[in-house]
Design goal:
CATH architecture of the largest domain: 3-Layer(aba) Sandwich
Number of domains: 2
Distance between the termini: 13 Å
Structural class: alpha/beta
Strand order of the largest sheet: 3-4-2-1-7-8-9-10
CATH topology of the largest domain: Rossmann fold
Largest sheet: 8 strands, mixed
Number of strands: 16
Shape: globular
CATH superfamily of the largest domain: Glycogen Phosphorylase B
CATH class of the largest domain: Alpha Beta
Radius of gyration: 21 Å
Amino acid sequence: MRIAFFTETFLPATDGVVTRLRHTIEELGRMGDDMLIIAPRYPDGGPTSYAGAPIYRVPGVPFPPYPRIKLSFAHPGVGRALKRFGPDLIHAVNPFILGPGGIYYAGRLGVPLVASYHTNVAAYARYYNLEFLANAARWWTRQLHNRADLNLCTSEATMSYLLEEGVKRIRLWPQGVDARRFHPNKASEEWRERLSVGHPRDKLLLYVGRLAPEKGIERLKAILREVPNTRLAIVGDGPARANLEREFRGAPAVFTGVLQGEDLASAYASADAFLFPSTTDTLGLAMLEALASGLPVIAARTGPSHEIVIEGETGLLYEADSMPSLVAAVRRVLSDEQLRAVLVLRAREAAEQRDWVFSTQTLRGYYEEALG
């Protein structure tokens, strides 16, 4: 099968969408498929291919509230690249700016179109002072996705939301995680020392993800005020980093920047619990990576987090708008050794039931359905 991906973000950018797409491309390559990736061009370059799939880069302009996001529009060169490649199918990943080009060329080339939904752009609008665009974003999302032969989403909660929004022909694209890379045996005294800034005997909490306004990271400061001998490591980067560093100044917290590969795996495994305060994510891949690392997850109670975290077995859910609920959940996980032992064991077991092979095999089945 020859598959052309249109994606609004790709390497060298790092987020959950890029992680899912990387693993998907790797697995499809192992299955013998050929791929072309249409992605934005970044000032710091990036690879010209990934896992054997060439990347056609499209220039764009920075999104002012979040310059790392590139607003790239398809141009005639994209059509020429597609014509040379000759796709059997086009997959528009999170279509919004570049993705509509995939929709256009699918129609022009007469090939099936699959679209996948990963980001609630309308919900994010209010965090960037763009509330007036929220309804327009919902309308645009519905218009784009209803041009696809199949629409994929990454959680049942998101599926319900899209159905309510009037999006049709929806399928569930299962979660996956690399449970070989993320593993409890990656724990490291060196990384614990680094993440705790020389206080390895303190309880160490971890956040991994984009540092953006919609993630709710500032709420975590309450834990450091209320729970003694507790430290927080914040892994990642993004437009809110400078504000967050000011917010946490003087608190027992450290900002590491982006970590990847074995460094990221060691960071996960060296902590005591993982925090996920976001209420806007459509999945939360970092929660799966934490579970694979044997970390109990303490997450805001939302539809997607409820699908990943089994209350009292792999972690605890707290009420998203309640600081006392968050603090109580952290206290419980850090103080109840018997509970924590259960959470650590069940977390790893839960992650081992999800893998990228099954996720990608399911995706490929959807491709065949669209082709049929």
